[in-house]
């Protein structure tokens, strides 16, 4: 019999958590219906079943109060945008900030690479954890990833193993989606920087925008001139009849769409 002050030797296999539970997956407090695929039971024989049944608002037995809309006499007025001011000479040219801009861009690139490396390291850990759960000895590795109340309960181990696998796969899918979107965005930025003219929008291709003499022209005359130049450059909108009740609508500034003829003007 050990002495009162002597510490008892702990067994190797114990239900005590050797890791901080905040770092583990915890599926005990989740909604059983949403995450546990629980069944919804409806008791139609209960006397309280018919008391609070849901009814469509049009079939309600009570009358709704009519909302009185007072006439406020509000009139809508279309306001015109202010004209662009004439440019003044900038005493601080762009070349003054080129050195600072390059240094900040270099620091931002280094921080981005550091964050990307840390993220890839975490995703490698997630992949290794998923591989451990797919092995034959997954029951040894599951308590290191998920909170387990009773290690001798086979049903709990199987259920939490499937839940952990789904969570790991969802994390990897989100990372793959982020990686593809980041690659697409980087390719788009690189293409735009290599060909700045291709990145310009149709709405911003006015060649006379840098000319300050346009400020002396009326807005109606300037809008008419720009509309004529755009029509001469990109063409007019048109529709192609398909003969089956549909037509293709084309606009140089929009994506071509297929619509029903009767719904078009």
TrEMBL record:
Query: Under which name does UniProt file this protein?
Result: Something about silencing protein 4 domain-containing protein
Which superkingdom?
Eukaryota
Specify the Something about silencing protein domain's residue ranges.
90-186
Region annotation Disordered: where it falls in the sequence: 192-212
Question: What's the source species' lineage?
Answer: Eukaryota, Fungi, Dikarya, Ascomycota, Saccharomycotina
MF annotations from Gene Ontology:
histone acetyltransferase activity
A single GO CC term for this protein reads: SAS acetyltransferase complex
**From what organism does this protein derive?**
Metschnikowia bicuspidata var. bicuspidata NRRL YB-4993
